[in-house]
Amino acid sequence: MTKIKWPVEPQRPAFARALVALGNTHKDVVVASADVSTSTMTGVFAKHFPERHYNFGIAEQNMISACAGLATTGKVVYASTFAIFGTGRVYDQIRQSVCYPRLNVKLVVTHAGITVGGDGATHQMIEDIALMRALPNMTVIVPADAPETEKAVLAAADHEGPVYIRLGRANVPVCTTSEECQDFEIGKATTMREGSDVTLVGTGIMVAKCIEAAEELEKHNVSARVINLSTIKPLDKRTLIKAARETGAIVTAEEHSVVTGMGAAVALVLAENAHVPMKRVGIPDSFGESGSSDELMQKYGLTVDDIVDGAHDVLKRKK
Amino acid sequence: MTARDKNSELFTRQYTGREAMVEHYSDEKIKELETTARLIRRHIIQMIFDAGSGHPGGSLSATDVMVALYFDIMEHNPDDIKWPDRDRFVLSKGHAAPALYACLAETGYFPVEELKTLRLIGSRLQGHPDMRKTPGVEASTGSEGQGLSMGLGMALAGKLDNKEYITYVMVGDGELNCGQCWEAAMSAAFFKADNLVAIVDRNKLQLDGPTNQIMSIEPLADKWKAFGWDVIEINGHSFPELLDALHKAKETKGIPTVIIADTVKGKGVSFMEGQVGFHGKCPSEEEYNQAMAELGGI
Ligand SMILES: Cc1ncc(C[n+]2csc(CCOP(=O)(O)OP(=O)(O)O)c2C)c(N)n1
Ligand SMILES: [Mg+2]
Asked: pLDDT, tens digit, for every residue of B100-135?
């Protein structure tokens, strides 16, 4: 199997770069951390703008509601912690303090998904997309790589209302360097590769794997379209429906539980608008475990082969 | 002249220091506030009776504190609700919304007539406060435990922007069961948020029963002191004590202040006073009539 030689880059330094840039351009930007600023890299912003950074300690509930309070005064507040502590632990605070009053709090979480690795299931947040996309007024973004992370973090500042941005811990292949990826827009999916037999819809670190899968499929004379669905809410329905109609089969791929993640969101749109054979590649309905990122991706069905298999499966079901 | 100074003219007082306080407030002024409080309590009963549901007990216990704030202590301007320098009030125990709405209406944020629409479909007056729907409401609350954190955020923004406004947060005593309140308490002292004032509506009842039987919060003053707050304990139905404490809280530098206001749940309506049953119960027609009669001396 061909492997694309991607340059790799972690998303967190890109997040930090974007925050510092915002610190300079947006005087209303403030940043909140919860004793993991070294890991989320909001500590970089704190070094540049100490008076505009608040470390709330291990008190995430207080952090989220205090960010809401800050936002009522016109501040654009970036709150950051690990995905596991920044979503489930504080769901009610996000719901009541931030989303209901539609406040300008940007929740940028890191260490999302199973690729956290060794820390095990207690630290592997694989249902956060489900939680966040259930919330009215919330925008949910899962950047594909470091450059897209930077763009998403910057775009969030000028977006009115709550935003959730999901980042990983590990190195991520840089796959959004091409022309069509340059104009990042919240709510707009990017077609990374044209194709007519099947569409591979990826989000986050699975986008690069979708591109690799498309190359693999090409060897079997299958023309696969690849869509980077970095905004999961609001969904770019037009692009998805068009892809379903034009290619007649859809495979989704996400580093998240398949139960209620991106694939589920796409399935609902297609069920109502363009009913085509579909396969969701993602983590089955289970918790994760300790292991290396690669081992876990293998074990929980998140490889290029899983996407390729998924494509063959939907092609078979396509009449 | 700053906007703040201009606004102060609307609410002129010549406060000259804590000692002078009790003397400065004339008997007539205190009487006036007491009369206003009775009016607010009548609104509360009327609103809940009209709506057919709501929380009379905690609204009535909180009334005097809110009257002191909205009708005297706070600098706010109903004609300019987004005035950046305004003092803020966060009703963390959001179920006392009727008391807040009555104060907002009577200070001019919206027509008193509108109080009739509490909890009705399409109304701006939601069952729990909604900062997007109701003019003058500073924070959306209802899930207990979050308001002190929100107030802290407002206070931190005030510090950052070198503003003089004070953020007042009213919390319930049952609400203090919530861990988040103590996260907020810890961090407010750490951040030296002396522009944050918490007021505990210490009515000694929560939903299921007395706080000392459901989940005791004592020793309460010691807890706040241990968290680094200045603590003032007062009778929460005495205007001289309330005004005195609120002025002192404003002056305190370096640490946040908590006022533990000893109150009576259901205050002002004899058969509701101290009765846990009226935490979230609408009065019957007979009870409504009696309550209004008792509060009638306006
Ligand atoms: C997090 C949360 N849990 C439960 C409730 C339901 N509830 C509403 S009021 C209340 C009791 C409140 O007691 P207290 O804070 O003392 O208020 P007060 O006595 O002033 O009415 C409860 C449990 C809630 N609103 N929020
Ligand atoms: Mg109580």
From this structure: 999 999 999 999 999 999 999 999 999 999 999 999
Atom of ligand 1 nearest to the CA of B207: 11
Mean residue pLDDT of chain A comes to 96
Can you tell me the distance from the alpha carbon of B7 to that of B24, in angstroms, rounded to the nearest whole number?
21
Tell me the residue range of the domain where B42 lies. 27-294
Q: Give ranges for CATH 3.40.50.970 in chain A.
A: 8-173
Residues with Cβ within 8 Å of residue B255, at least 6 apart in sequence:
B189, B192, B194, B228, B229, B230
- Cα-Cα-Cα-Cα torsion B45, B50, B51, B54, nearest 10 degrees, comes to 10
Question: Whole-angstrom Cα distance, residue A12 to residue A168?
Answer: 8
Single-letter amino acid code for the residue at B123: S
Q: What separation in angstroms does the CA of B50 have from each of A8, B47, B271, B282?
A: 64, 5, 19, 9
Closest CA to A212 of A304, A111, A95: A304
Of A300, A60, A120, A303, the closest CA to residue A205 belongs to A303
Residues B179, B184, B185, B188: what is their CA dihedral angle, to the nearest 10 degrees?
Answer: 170
Q: How confident is the model at residue B272 (pLDDT cuts 50, 70, 90)?
A: very high
Residues 98-117 of A with CB under 8 A from B: 100-102
| Structural element, H or E, at residue B146 | none
The 10 Å Cβ neighbour count of residue B164 is: 12
A34-90: pLDDT as tens digits = 999 999 999 999 999 999 999 999 999 999 999 999 999 999 999 999 999 999 999
A59, A237, B47 from A54: Cα distances, Å:
12, 38, 41
The domain total for chain B is: 1
Please answer whether residues B119 and B54 qualify as being in contact, where contact means their C-beta atoms are separated by less than 8 angstroms.
Answer: yes
Instruction: Let me know how long chain A is.
Output: 319
Nearest to B153 among A68, A95, A96 (CB): A68
For the CA of B62, the nearest atom of ligand 1: 20
Distance from CA of B287 to the nearest CA of A (A): 34
- The CATH architecture annotation of domain A179-317 reads 3-Layer(aba) Sandwich (3.40)
Subunit contact B180:A51, Cβ cutoff 8 A: no
Active site residues of A: 60
Segments in B52-146 forming alpha helices (H):
56-68, 97-106
The topology (CATH level 3) of A8-173 is Rossmann fold (3.40.50)
Q: What is the pLDDT of residues B3-31, one digit of tens each?
A: 344 344 333 333 334 444 555 799 999 99
Judge contact between A89 and A61, C-beta under 8 A: yes
Is residue B23 helix, strand or coil?
A: helix
Task: Dig out the tokens for A72 from the structure.
Answer: 């009522």
